[in-house]
Amino acid sequence: MGVYKSYKRRFHLKNARLKKYQKNEQLNKEEPININEEEPININEEAPNNIINEKAGEVPNKRMRLISTIQQLPDKDIHPTSNLISIMRYPRGTNEGNIISPYLQQKAYDYLNQSFYKHHSTHQFLKDSNSKLEKNNKKLHQKNQTLIKRTQSLGAKVQHLQSQKSQHIAEIRSLVRRSNHITDTEFRKKIKSIFKINNREYTSNTIWLATSISQVGQTSLRSTVECMRLVYEFLIGEPPQDWLTVSSLCTWHQDISELHFNEQIHQVANAPVFGIMVDESTRGQVKNFVLCYQFWDGKKQLPVAILSQLQDIPKCNAEIVSDTVIKNIQECGLDFKKCLLWVTDNTAYMSGDKKGAVVLYNKKTSSNSLRVGCGLHIVQIIMNHFEQEAFGKLSNNTGFSRHQHPYNLLYLAWKLHDGYDSSDKDKPLNINSQIIKDLYNGLLGYHYNQYQLPLRSRWGYELRTAKQFLDRHKAHVEFANWFIGEMECHNTPKSYLNDWYLFQSWLLDSKLNIQIKCLVTFAEHFYEPLMQFIAGQDTVARIYQNGQLATLPPGRRAHEMSDKVYEWHKFLQNIAKNFEMFFADELLEALDVLSSEEFGVLFDNLEKGIIKALEYFEKWFLPWLHLPLVVCRLGGNNAKSFASSFYHVILKRPWIKLPNDLELRFAEELENDLKNGIMDSFGLQELLLQDNNFLREFEQFCVDDKSFIYNFPDLYNFVKTRIYFIIIHQQQVEGLFNKLDLKTHPNMSLAVKQSKLRLSSNKIVKENYSDGLKKIRSERNSAKKIPLQEIQLQQFGSDIASDLFNKLLH
User: How many CB atoms lie within 10 A of CB 459?
Assistant: First the structure.
């Protein structure tokens, strides 16, 4: 989370450090007193005189301490001390008779300490030590022999590889010599066999190449056909007589897509559970509805999300969405009961507790699927309500109005600097964004990047614009004053000049500028950390893949959400209680420049904004602190603590070990859920009660502090298949709509669009598609041979049309 700027705490901390510094200074000035407080006893009459005659400094103090120490010695230590002073002198040399230096004294003491107090110099100890040394020597000898053998083996391998290399070189030379005898006709025949099996049928590699080229960037199907023709002509040396068509390429594309999708759906069916992601986006008159499956791929040992369906739906409501999902699950041969959760946005038709799409799905299929709100969408909702409550609602939620509001000021800043449409014929004075930049540079020597267009539906864009505006505020004021004066001297359109007048007045409006600063402060400490976490990736390696640990893909952070939500909730509660300290800089500035009435309104509205943000945070994020989503903690950093609390509360067993504060808090949360009738645990409780092996493993996990979760196979399988696959946002689904715009065009059939989106997620693997394509073609041909009497004719008439019309209205 962002650093909470508590000025009270900083003030107290500063005072505490100052007092501590002053106390240390006073202690340093005082002379340390280690001698006895009693009046010293003179050994002889000359000692005091000698001390007085000594030069003031450190030596007299040490002499006094030495005399005091000797005076306090017991009688039994008098003789050893006298003997020590007599003996510890240099026996010869230039220092003969002087007391041995402190360095040599320390050496003697260390030797005595290391040897005298060791009781290991017995014969048995030496014998055991010798035996250990012999064993170590034997082990080292064995290791040495092993290394010698490995070296010899590596030498043999090197020799073998050198022989292979020589053989390969010889084969290459042989092929080069033989290639001189290949005629042009034979070469063309060989190349043609790569592209075609016969005159009517293309090879599997050709189909793979054409499909892969069509998926590169924004390559159209028609361009793909032309690229394939050019490659063929380059290799053969002549244009093809009978070449593939766009229609054939469309069929190939759909067939390859179906092959890949069938393999992926097989993995979904084998998974213990799966999740659904749905979203809708309108393009012109088409409502594109996207349905994706998320699951743990047992083959790849990775969490995977795949596109299942792209459909044009007449209307996006709970009834149509639930029916569409049910129909697709049936067509894919999946089990309704395995649908663990839906990840959706927080629109009413999705999130409704009574008539939402997930609720209707559960009623129609007798399932118990859970809805998980898109984290990115939730943060957007929180920030929008904070802004509306703190700064006022906008009369127009989709665009600009001349009402005094931070968003309108930011939009106007963008419009006057980078909002010039090159196709607008009524451009004032032929001004565009580059001319405005040049004028800033010529007047102030000021350079700036392009303004971000603020969008109400993308709160991060508005934040980016707000930061740019605050950085450029001073330059904007100077430029507006000059530019308006210049335009007044020319025949400038009135509407354009009025925009600059309005911009100039808002630039000088203290309240508006303080509101933007408050907006940025709250966003930097709340919005940005949340967005970075939700859209980011867990850096801790948690999954065991191919014999080594690996990190989860981005977005799979359900195992961290409960702890993060608890942390963010406490942070918001703290701001709500002390919001005047959180916005201290902005409120102090407002106190200086605003009237008492304006300050009071700003103060109250900021408080209401924070409270409203807390209210919507609790509404959409707090489910992560309750069952069943709180079970996701089993895959996170506090897995063992949560497992102990779950074992005690849900299974009603005694504590396996003495609980700590964290475990007690987890237990209290679980007990509150049980009191409120919340029992769902993602199937964890049922597994523990039914499987004794799983229960024993779970108990061992609770008490074993050193082992990791992947050391417990059954528990790790539960976590990876029910928790690690969960994506906590819809960014991946929204990305499909971007690919839809880039890789398709409106004239494409819906089936081709769907196949292009399905193949856009992963690289198309080069393999032999011959058998799979033959099977798909035979099934397609069989469908064409259905007798006419078995074909159900399309029903039509006024009754059918009325039913369709009524469905559109409801």
Answer: 22
State the DSSP code for 303. Answer: E
* Best mean pLDDT range from 89-103, 159-173, 286-300: 286-300
From residue 383, give the alpha-carbon distance in Å to each of 387, 619, 751: 6, 14, 39
**Which residue is associated with the tokens 């769902």?**
680
Bridge partners of residue 481, in order along the sequence: none
**3-class DSSP assignment, residue 253:** helix
Q: Give the closest residue to 440 by CA, choosing from 402, 468, 478.
A: 478
**Burial of residue 28, with CB atoms counted within 10 A of its CB: 0-12 exposed, 13-18 middle, 19 or more buried:** exposed
> E strands within 640-693?
none
DSSP state for residue 623 in the 8-state scheme: G
pLDDT tens readout for residues 543-558? 988 888 999 999 999 9
Q: Which two tokens stand for residue 400?
A: 């600009």
DSSP string, 542-597: -EEETTEEEPPPTT--HHHHHHHHHHHHHHHHHHHHSHHHHTHHHHHHHHHHS-HH
- In this structure, are residues 301 and 546 in contact, taking their beta carbons and an 8 Å threshold? yes
Beta bridge partners of 550: 543
Count other C-beta atoms under 10 Å from residue 724's C-beta. Answer: 22
Widest Cα–Cα separation across the chain: 138
Q: How many residues does the chain have?
A: 810
Using an 8 Å Cβ cutoff, are 316 and 807 in contact? Answer: no
Q: Is 715 within 8 Å of 709 (Cβ atoms)?
A: yes
Specify the DSSP class assigned to residue 429: G
Per the DSSP assignment, residues forming a β-bridge with 487 are none
Give 188's contacts (C-beta < 8 A, 6+ positions apart).
236, 237
- Which range has highest mean pLDDT (81-90, 511-520, 778-787)? 511-520
| pLDDT digits 0-9 by tens, 69-114 | 888 888 888 888 888 888 888 888 788 888 888 877 887 777 777 6
Number of Cβ within 10 Å of residue 286's Cβ equals 13
Q: DSSP 3-state assignment of 201? A: coil
- Bridge partners for 275 per DSSP: 294, 341
State how far Cα 67 lies from the chain centre: 70
More confident residue, 35 or 690: 690
DSSP string of 736-791, one letter each residue:
HHHHHHHH--TTS-HHHHHHHHHHHSSPPP----HHHHHHHHHHHHHHHT--GGGS
Residue type, 347: T
* Amino acid letter for position 649: V
d(CA 95, CA 553): 75
Say whether 381 sits in a helix, a strand or coil. helix
